[in-house]
Amino acid sequence: xxxxxxxxxxxxxxxLLLSLVTYSQDKVITGKVMDSKDGSGLPGVNVxxxxxxxxxxxxxxxxxxxxxxxxxxxxxxxxVGYTTYEVKISGKxxxxxxxxxxxxxxxxxxxxxxxxxxxxxxxGAVTSITAKDFNKGTITTPEQLIxxxxxxxxxxxxxxxxxxxxxxxxxxxxSLNASNSPLIVIDGVPVDNGNISGAANPLALINxxxxxxxxxxxxxxxxxxxxxxxxNGVIIVTTKKGKTGKMRxxxxxxxxxxxxxxxxEILSGDQIRDIVQADYIARGSNDSTYLRLLGSDNTDxxxxxxxxxxxxxxxxSMSGALKNMPYRVSLGYLSQDGILRTGNLKRTSAAINIAPxxxxxxxxxxxxxxxxxxxxxxxxxxxxxxxxxxxxxxPVYSSSKRFGSFFEWQDPSSTTGLRDLAPLNPVGLLEQRxxxxxxxxxxxxxxxxxxxxxxxxxxxxxxxxxDVAQGEGTIYVPDSxxxxxxxxxxALHGGIDNSYLQKKSNGILEFYLNYAKEIKSISxxxxxxxxxxxxxxxxxxxxxxxxxNGVLTDAQGNKWRPYTDYAxxxxxxxxxxxxxxxxxxxxxxxxxxxxxxxKGKFLLTGTIRKDGSSRFSEENRWGWFPSGAFAWRIGExxxxxxxxxxxxxxxxxxxxxxxxxxxxxxxxxIPRYSQANGQAQYQFGDTYFTLFRPEGYNxxxxxxxxxxxxxxxxxxxLDGRITGSVDFYIKKTSDLLSVVDQPAGTNFSNKILANxxxxxxxxxxxxxxxxxxxxxxxxxxxxxxxxxxxxEITKLTFTNDPSFPGNLVGGIAGGVGSxxxxxxxxxxxxxxxxxxxxxDKDGKPIEDLFEDRNRDxxxxxxxxxxxxxxxxxxxxxxxxxxxWKKWTAGFSVRAxxxxxxxxxxxxNTGTLRNILDPLNFLANGSTNYLETNFSGNGDxxxxxxxxxxxxxxxxxxxxxxxxxxxxxxGKNTNLRIGANVQNVFTxxxxxxxxxxxxxxxxxxxxxxxxxxxxxxxxxx
Amino acid sequence: xxxxxxKNCVVVIMFLxxxxxxxxxxxxxxxxxxxxxxxxxxxxxxxxxxxxxYGSFALTGNxxxxxxxxxGGDIQGIDExxxxxxxxxxxxQELSTDEAVISWGDVGxxxxxxxxxxxxNSFLTGLYYRCLYQITLCNEFIRQCGDDKLGSRGISGADAxxxxxxxxxxxxxxAFQYWVLMDLYGNPPFVTEASAIGAAPPPQATRGEIxxxxxxxxxxxxxxxxxxxxxxxxxxxxxxxxxxxxxxxxNAEVYTGTAKFGEAITYASKVIESGYSLISNxxxxxxxxxxxxxxxxxxxxxxxxxxxxxxxxxxxxxxxCVGGSMPASTFGVGGGWSGTRATKNLPNLFPDITGTADxxxxxxxxxxxxxxxxxxxxxxxVAVTKYRNVRRDSIVVNGVKVPAPGSSQxxxxxxxxxxxxxxxxxxxxxxxxxxxxxxxxxxxLGYINLLRTRAYTNASGNINAGQFTLDFILDERGRELYWxxxxxxxxxxxxxxxxGTYLWPWKGGVSSGTGVADFRKLYPIPSRDVNANTNLDQNxxx
Lengths: 1020, 542
Known about the structure:
By secondary structure, chain A is mainly β. In chain A, 8% of the residues lie in helices and 46% in strands. Chain A is globular and about 105 Å long. The two termini of chain A are 45 Å apart. Chain B has helices at residues 2-21, 36-39, 43-55, 85-95, 110-114, 122-144, 147-152, 157-184, 207-221, 238-250, 252-256, 261-272, 313-320, 421-433, 441-456, 470-481, 487-493, 527-532, and strands at 101-102, 297-301, 340-341, 363-364, 383-384, 390-397, 400-405, 416-420. In chain B, a hairpin with a 2-residue loop joins strand 6 and strand 7. The longest helix of chain B is centred in the N-terminal third of the chain and has 28 residues, at 157-184. Chain B is globular. Chain B starts with a helix and ends in a 10-residue tail after the last helix. Classes of the chains: A mainly beta, B mainly alpha. At the A-B interface, strand 25, strand 26, strand 30, strand 31 and strand 35 of A face helix 1, helix 2, helix 3, helix 6 and helix 18 of B.
């Protein structure tokens, strides 16, 4: 008899025995277990009769049935992640209960790279956020689920456009020129974070409703297993899986209304008329040029371009198990309008998960397939800037049919008839541009996890995954539109009729062996993995398609038709050089990790990864990324037994080296020539020659390395009612990939990406989660996290020359090529680089009067100084959730302190020169003009520190309320209804529209709407 | 049990195989970019790279007119739109003088006229990198033209001869850019075809060393260059080499302390005697069809509204000068950029601002103030109408005869002569006046009167020997060559650039004008390169 058969028989006997026992009991109790947070049924809760071995589990809807002996008086409800409850039966046959989540449960399983760990066994800085803790509201893109939830993690949405993404920064970002975005791994597939043509944000293609958990790996001891891509942290996203039990459905629907919270403060038509009149008088009442340009209207252009917008989000999911194969299938449909008129996103998404088990669970297969089809219509965002600049004394429509009947500034002497460089009618920009895309993306993987039959301590895991996407779109602007009027160089053809197509195809193969063994004789346990990973990233950008009637011929002699750039009459304005381009890169890796635990108190982790990238030359191709960590569970020590208040205490110390290569061109190390396009030819004799340009290259490119030291303490008090952690970290990036000046004459580009420079991030993170109130009727869950981060560039040049001011960055609107920021040694990255404004006795800035900081008697670039930086010194998030009987409520706030913004709208439009444009038109300006009365002459006012404003803020991200109506529509159903408000209010001294602009330069940002939503969810 | 064992072994073997086989997969190469072996496989390929070597004068990158999205310009760290050679050269040579002011607010642009530029000035930085970029292109191209490379690629015979000629032209272009660096920055880093790409930072050369190098290179290639006017339009010939030698010798005293006026006369004469003549109408010089001016033009940068697009060069010159009440279409542009004007010193060189007598006096005055109260107001200062993107001939629009426009409203067709015959006349005349050997006053006066006869369309403007002074020549250079990138060099040679003895509105940042420190006769080496290249010492005063 084999071992297998023996086991089978044992199971059979047990089942028989149990059923016999069950049969002899006589009291049946039914009931339902709900989550106190939202009233949803909780499956998988253990229900046991106290003092006996009798027990069962709740089904998918949270219902259970248990037969107990009459002597039993108390039922015990327990579930991982929830407080254990004991409920008296008191003669009832039905016992319903709401279970509150226990905060920071130690037995919680956390997903780490290539495996899972119990939370108590972690040695690194890892935060796990599961669905129950996600932000509520109209959330259409996954990363918004965790905004403000995690210490050390900043999620800044990139504006209010439908489906627009966010910039995610973990502990400040480790790089200057390479990517600062964390690696995102979805169900074992590291996804391409790059843009997809036609999509506002690649993550927006994933339905947030399918996500089960986020696990955020912050320090190097946790991330080093991802080696070269881990410097900016790793976010592991796990989607919802099927659960055993019979088939259950959930349908949820949400309707929401988005509203513009605040308009930019600009001048009215009457104010413009006053200013023009005053100027006329001030200049001797003899030049009526601008008076004659005035109109009589009072148009509120912002009113014309913004509108309340509705969003509907419907989701249907089905889960259960077919024999021993749990499955989950979900469908989602989102339709979201933007508050900037004409913008819209329609996303249809589907996800399938099946997880069959074979050979007595020796072989587990996990199949995940996710797909979405998104249809975008992008609103012309240029209308935002145009609306704040377009003359409010003018009407929306003119009597003339020219330019689609929209009023535009005209100049009879110009070829197009349009006044050159004047703003264009914002409504015309919106309504005359049809910019649509159709984006398909699918991410999927199949994972085979096989526990070796003859050696069950060893597990082999094979993961095959893909991430494919296709973005295609069209842009159409009629030839009557001012924005594309007679735009061909010969001014004979106008309008835009373009299309584009991009395909991405990324594949991954990973294999690892896992050995886990508990060696009781030495009170130790070991868990080790060794693995291999191969990943290929390939994008194809199509510039045209094969067509026998095409006007171009490719290298193989095939005729092709370009996608761009056409006027609406089919005239080809510029033509691309190649039919397609296919940038590609690969990563090959070997990795290993050992976890060693001694007496359950001392934990050691060591990891190593060796990565090879196709982006480097053979000499620099491979990089080693090691880490080590130690943790001591002080709470388990005998001397702590007396400290009853302390339920858990753990000290973690970790160090590791991680790398970065994202953001480097695929072929930057190879000497190569590139061909110029048809508009960059050169004439010899009567012939125009196509040119070949040698490209700058750096054969010495190599990995950027970040060494992180992390010291953390995890704590728990009062039996886990208060938990949290404190972490101190230092991240030192060396061989910083920085675009540096080459000695002139030594390369084909004067700036080359090279491994020069060092940067540091230091910080402290503090998190506390607590349940201040907990009783049968009312619970209050509370969470708070705060982060302090300081960034400093410590080296930037080959030679540490103190006279080198730094690398100028941060282009602004205003003077062509002007920049407002600088990367300088000794300062945070992107510090503002400005003149020091001098003010009069009333505190009003005096135009063009600045501090001569170097006392050389003149004001020039040597008087610029570094003043503040865009990244916050401190940021925090806090949430509270309340449960009272069947009611739930919650809110979340988030705050940033010490973050500064350059108010580019003030500087660019708050001057008389902007209002009375020398090019013979009028433009609207910021009300800031009334405060400064700046003329706008000269070139220095743009760089005044007057425009650098403290943008510290406190924002209430959402407030929500919900009611669990229970089985209102039928037995075995559960109905919940709720309402919420998102982006409720913002407290700030910043004078612009929104203080939260990533990068530090505020210029016509797409405003984040305030969203009011109602939702209904039904389980059946 | 055996089966299971096999299964497990397969797993392990698969793991090992994967591990070993895939590392070659890390060798990837771009789809469309090509390696040097492909580019230089044929003589045609050489010519396409030669196109880039020349085209670097006119273009800013590989994607015309500009590629701001991918930051694909040749020169990084400066807006691609103004990173071309001539726009930057023009600003450095003209905005710093009495001939031009600009109304824009770009950081550092007003420093030219205020004469308080620093080593961080992005325009000076851009020009410096552009010059050295073209030199680097030339160096690489000259390396690729070596007999060793041609031999290994199997190129011989007439193809090889042509390629050797390309290499000589690259040496001329390199010498020209070293002349620019010598004139503006004095002591640049020194790289030749012997300096490999990615090598250690190059040494710095003194102004005198650059002078000797430019002279020796030009003299070396001169005999084998194509005869004057024998090369294709747009490519350099022997006359271009002579013209650059003449210009360099005229300024030799400034560069080295040793005058070489005799040599200036020698080489100016060689050009003058090689069959060039002035075109009949001065106002046709800077027009969309000025490729017809081959009688007078010795060497040009070629622009084209459809094929050679950029925001610099003559596109800048034809657009930036249009503003105020000037009708854009008259100037062949879609719209003016309201930038450049002249101080009153320029029109004051002429007998009248309207051009009635001297046709070279091309100004637009309606709505423009002669005096400049505000440098950044386009209407302060007279507008200059010398550059127009229209042709000589006319077309009839709505019954009205108007000049035929260039091929594009947005990008200019006007070619920019780097050398033209008139300059050679003026070099000859000045070198004679300054005592150079080998010329004579009568011939010199005759050359000046050739210029004046064309300007006045008759002999009424001719001067006599008594009027023919050194200062007259400076003024005549102003009248003939204004806005063609000569003024700063000329004023320095006449000791009028930094000195308080010659003033113009807002010289040194003061409305009535003031002298500035002597060190400003040289521009600073950009601090970015001083940082990147430890061999470089900054010019005195900066």
